[in-house]
């Protein structure tokens, strides 16, 4: 009875400590500063889901590049998904995070070890003869996680691994989009090069005809000089396009993990399909994007670490047990009379630490503030990316229509100028101006078309890898 009464204050203190620990380790997160979810996208009708944590799986992130129906593009994107160095670095960091999570979680389990040793010892005061002691035994230690310190650290490490997994998906999506945009830019450049080269050939034919007419005295030397200038200028533009194509081809080589010196994409006709954007973009943009998922789990990990830092104010309890044998001779080592054992418990509570624990809590709170700010930023960037691409696609569609009218008018003007020039009603200068204007408008039309493809890829990336 006396023992029960005497232990009551200790139990009361322990219960109070547990209550305080529960209050200290629970860290409510103030999300009032998180941007409010808009009711719809400004550039396109469709509701938007609230910013809830994304699951560990990639939502809607599949083989989105197949909507372009381009076999070469499919091959390049799949190759980059396997061989790109940025993807491999992100994969390596994920493996590191998972290993750290397993290492952190292992501290919650009992630690068992085996040991053996030989000791040569003597006592000079008593004059004993030096003796040899042979020992063998096992040890067990276990830290009691009364206040959730170990569980919190394990949870934070697991969230770090989940964040790295989301970052791997984000890196893979980024690389896939870069490959698609670079490849589509190259195909658009091929079409533009074909247009410029065909125009250059027409100019060369005109130059040969003009030189013949000059030798026959039908035209002045000024006409020859004008056509020669146009040929040289167009040749320069063709070479600039060749240089730009080489750069794009080398960029694709790096993205897919190949040496630029041996990598080649053969020029072919640009037949890549342009996907049709559905009437409403997905309402779950915030739970589809892997970068949002990474920011969310990083925020949760920082929140968990605040609780872990607060547990430093509470005592830690460690249990130990040892057992084994010790004897002066190896043959006597495992006799029952030579066995020994021991158990123990250690309670430790720092009293004065110079502000170390308080600094640890402040540091954890600062990390939480940083993670919350990054999460807010990712949300703002996500909606900006979607709005950017939606507005670009809308305006590019209108620009494409206007540019088509411009191409049709300039083509008609070139046809009429050529007829009038052949009949001697206008000078060669007017014909060259008409041809130059048509070439410029056709090139601009190709550039607008290329921008539509690039913005489509950009929208897919902004939506987290597709709109299905």
TrEMBL record:
<feature type="signal peptide">
    <location>
        <begin position="1"/>
        <end position="21"/>
    </location>
</feature>
<keyword id="KW-0472">Membrane</keyword>
<keyword id="KW-0564">Palmitate</keyword>
<dbReference type="InterPro" id="IPR010131">
    <property type="entry name" value="MdtP/NodT-like"/>
</dbReference>
<dbReference type="InterPro" id="IPR003423">
    <property type="entry name" value="OMP_efflux"/>
</dbReference>
<keyword id="KW-0812">Transmembrane</keyword>
<keyword id="KW-1134">Transmembrane beta strand</keyword>
<protein>
    <submittedName>
        <fullName>Efflux transporter outer membrane subunit</fullName>
    </submittedName>
</protein>
<dbReference type="GO" id="GO:0015562">
    <property type="term" value="F:efflux transmembrane transporter activity"/>
</dbReference>
<comment type="similarity">
    <text>Belongs to the outer membrane factor (OMF) (TC 1.B.17) family.</text>
</comment>
<keyword id="KW-0732">Signal</keyword>
<keyword id="KW-0449">Lipoprotein</keyword>
<dbReference type="Pfam" id="PF02321">
    <property type="entry name" value="OEP"/>
</dbReference>
<dbReference type="GO" id="GO:0005886">
    <property type="term" value="C:plasma membrane"/>
</dbReference>
């Amino acid at each position: 009875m006396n023992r029960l009464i005497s232990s009551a204050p200790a139990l009361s203190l322990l219960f109070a400590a547990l209550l305080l620990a529960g209050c200290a380790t629970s860290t409510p997160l103030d999300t009032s500063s998180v941007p409010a979810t808009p009711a719809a996208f400004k550039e396109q009708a469709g509701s938007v889901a609230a910013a809830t944590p994304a699951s560990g799986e990639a939502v809607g992130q599949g083989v989105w590049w197949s909507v372009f129906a381009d076999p070469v593009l499919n091959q390049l994107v799949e190759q980059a998904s396997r061989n790109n160095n940025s993807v491999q670095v992100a994969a390596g960091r994920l493996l590191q995070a998972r290993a750290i999570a397993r290492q952190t979680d292992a501290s919650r389990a009992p630690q068992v070890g085996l040991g053996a040793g030989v000791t040569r010892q003597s006592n000079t005061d008593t004059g004993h003869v030096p003796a040899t002691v042979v020992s063998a035994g096992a040890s067990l230690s276990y830290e009691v996680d009364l206040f959730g310190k170990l569980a919190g650290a394990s949870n934070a490490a697991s969230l770090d691994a989940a964040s790295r997994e989301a970052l791997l998906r984000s890196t893979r999506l980024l690389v896939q989009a870069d490959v698609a945009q670079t490849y589509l830019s190259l195909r658009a450049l091929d079409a533009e090069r074909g247009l410029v080269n065909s125009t250059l050939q027409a100019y060369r034919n005109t130059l040969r005809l003009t030189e013949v007419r000059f030798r026959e005295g039908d035209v002045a030397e000024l006409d020859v000089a004008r056509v020669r200038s146009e040929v040289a200028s167009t040749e320069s533009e063709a070479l600039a396009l060749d240089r730009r194509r080489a750069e794009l081809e080398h960029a694709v080589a790096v993205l897919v993990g190949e040496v630029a010196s041996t990598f080649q994409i053969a020029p072919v006709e640009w037949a890549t399909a342009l996907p049709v954007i559905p009437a409403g973009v997905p309402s779950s943009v915030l739970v589809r994007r892997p970068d949002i998922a990474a920011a969310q789990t990083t925020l949760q990990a920082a929140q968990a670490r605040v609780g872990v830092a607060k547990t430093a104010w509470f005592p830690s309890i460690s249990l130990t047990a040892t057992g084994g044998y010790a004897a002066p001779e190896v043959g006597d080592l495992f006799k029952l009379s030579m066995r020994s054992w021991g158990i123990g418990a250690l309670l430790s509570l720092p009293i004065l630490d110079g502000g170390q624990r308080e600094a640890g809590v402040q540091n954890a709170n600062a990390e939480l503030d940083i993670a919350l700010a990054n999460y807010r930023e990712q949300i703002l960037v996500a909606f900006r990316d979607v709005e950017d691409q939606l507005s670009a696609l809308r305006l590019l569609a209108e620009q494409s229509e206007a540019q088509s009218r411009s191409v049709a008018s300039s083509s008609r003007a070139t046809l009429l100028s050529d007829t009038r020039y052949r009949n001697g009603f206008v000078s060669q200068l007017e014909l060259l101006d008409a041809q130059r204007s048509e070439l410029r408008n056709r090139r601009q039309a190709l550039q607008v078309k290329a921008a539509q493809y690039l913005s489509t890829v950009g929208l897919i990336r902004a939506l987290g890898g597709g709109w299905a």
